[in-house]
Specification:
- This protein has helices at about 10-20, 30-40, 60-65, 85-95, 105-120, 155-165, 175-180, 190-205; strands at about 1-5, 25-30, 45-50, 75-80, 100, 130, 135-140, 145, 150, 170-175, 210-215, 220.
- The protein is an alpha/beta fold.
- The strands form three sheets. A five-stranded parallel β-sheet has the order 2-1-3-4-5, sandwiched between helices. A four-stranded antiparallel β-sheet has the order 6-7-8-9, with helices on one face. The chain has a three-stranded antiparallel β-sheet with strand order 10-12-11.
- α6 (about 155-165) crosses α8.
- The chain is globular.
Length: about 220
């Protein structure tokens, strides 16, 4: 189930039609109040979230989702007419998994949706329990604990942390991280990686110091 929260009737109906034609189950909302009501009964597999909305802006909604353990791992793609670096970074910094600026092509949007959903659909056969210092990670349960306190990470933050730890001591370039975490390279700038690393470090607290920046190259877990 994909939720669409978009107040522009034409855009919302077009997205709805396009996704249904691709076989997705879709529910759309023009108002945040209707979205919050639906969320009380069903969590979507992915949310397409506009930034400029009546009642409540998309960034505020995203922050609420990420702060609630029941909704913190819902994949969110921001839909916005704003394309300045500040607006993009604000959305990513608040926990968005991806962003698409208006106007956008429907096939490009579908491609981005599938890329995000692939992060959830990979088999669990290779997943394991990981420990690094005080960090304890369960890939199957998608949980992270530090000092026996659970951290609530977005999907991208979780995947970044796991990838860095599994390659501890090795430098991973921004291009490598984009390819492995986002499944794409050309249409997302490297600033995306930097923003997610920064928020990941903040959530890890002192343990975030283990993520070392290699200037001009990328990052490594030490």
């Amino acid at each position: 189930m994909i939720y669409i929260l978009e107040d522009d009737d034409n855009i919302r109906k077009l997205i709805n039609y396009s996704l249904k034609s691709q076989g997705f189950e879709v529910q759309d909302f023009a108002l945040p109040s209707a979205f919050w009501t639906a969320l009380q009964t069903t969590n979507p597999d992915l949310l397409l979230l506009d930034i400029m909305l009546p009642e409540e802006d998309g960034i505020s909604i995203l922050k609420k989702l990420r702060s609630n353990p029941k909704t913190s791992t819902i994949p969110v793609i921001m839909l916005t007419a704003k394309d300045s670096e500040y607006d993009v970074v604000t959305g990513l910094d608040s926990g968005a998994d991806d962003y698409v600026t208006k106007p956008f092509g429907m096939m490009a949007l579908v491609s981005r949706i599938k890329a995000v959903l692939r992060r959830y659909e990979k088999t669990d056969s290779h997943k394991e329990l990981i420990q690094a210092g005080e960090l304890k990670i369960d890939e199957n349960q998608h949980t992270v604990f530090i000092h026996n306190r659970q951290l609530f990470l977005t999907v991208k933050e979780f995947d970044l942390l796991v990838l860095l730890i599994k390659n501890r001591g090795n430098v991973l370039t921004r291009e490598m991280l984009l390819e492995h975490i986002w499944d794409i390279s050309a249409d997302i700038e490297s600033r995306t990686v930097d923003v997610h690393i920064r928020t990941l470090r903040q959530k890890l607290g002192d343990a975030g110091n283990a993520i070392e920046t290699i200037r001009g190259v990328g990052y490594k877990f030490i």
